[in-house]
Amino acid sequence: MKLTKLTEHIYYMEHDPETDRPALGYIKGKKGGFMMDAGNSAAHYQHFLEKLQENKLPPPRYLSVTHSHWDHTFGLWATEAVTIAGEKTNKELEKMSHWTWDNTSMKQRLDAGQESEFSHIHIQREYSHLSDIRVRTAEISFNGSMTIDLGDVTCILRDIVSPHCRDSVVFLIPQDEVIFLGDSYCSVPEGEVWVYDKVLLTAYIDELERIDFRYAIKGHHPPQTKEVLLGELKNEWKRL
């Protein structure tokens, strides 16, 4: 996966569907770098650091996650950056930090509906040894919104209503007119079918329309303009 420069301050590494590795983002500021999402493993996180080094960018000073799902947070323990998460996300990570990671325990959580079949399959693809999984909470949590000043650029972390999960946070970089969505735009898996909740999708579209941005970086798809993104989401809404 390559590191792509999107704007003056924004870089991203594209997603890899093989083991459900989401896109990871980076903001280059005079006061240090800010990493958006932690990756689905220490290996994913380290791969991103290697791409930063290849592009002569420093390791992140701060790292924040968009929500608690494994593919965005299981790399948290591997970073030396200051870690940040929404309050709801940190509560979910705290619960998961007490889980046991072996085939039996994972199957029990799958049968109980605590994990999806999709996540179950991809976790096993990413991890040759499930015992390598470590779940860590972020050092700093916030409720509502938080602003990180990187000198010549700022990043606004803010809660958003999402059809994907209840703890979604998006990252807005006003100077570059970019928003990092994580998986907030996604539906949820029900067996082999991905389904949107119409009420939540309606609220999500309304919120995005009120946010000023030009480009959106998506967790598992290529970046889009605001116009194309909203058009895509509204077409999904019409099909419900």
- Name the helix and strand elements from N-terminus to C-terminus, one letter apiece: EEEEHEHEHHHEEEEEEEHEEH
Tally of separate domains: 1
CATH fold-level assignment:
Metallo-beta-lactamase, Chain A
Strand order within the widest sheet? 1-2-3-4-5-6-7
Overall morphology: globular
Helix fraction bin = 25-40%
Radius of gyration: 17 Å
CATH superfamily: Ribonuclease Z/Hydroxyacylglutathione hydrolase-like
Major pleated sheet: 7 strands, mixed
Record field, number of beta strands: 15
Describe this structure in words.
By secondary structure, the protein is an alpha/beta fold. It has one domain: Metallo-beta-lactamase, Chain A (4-Layer Sandwich), CATH 3.60.15.10. Helices cover 30% and strands 27% of the residues. The chain has seven helices and 15 strands. The strands form three sheets. Strands 1-2-3-4-5-6-7 form a seven-stranded mixed β-sheet. Strands 8-9-10-11-14-15 form a six-stranded mixed β-sheet. β10 (169-173) and β11 (178-182) form a beta hairpin. α6 (198-210) packs antiparallel against α7. The termini are far apart.
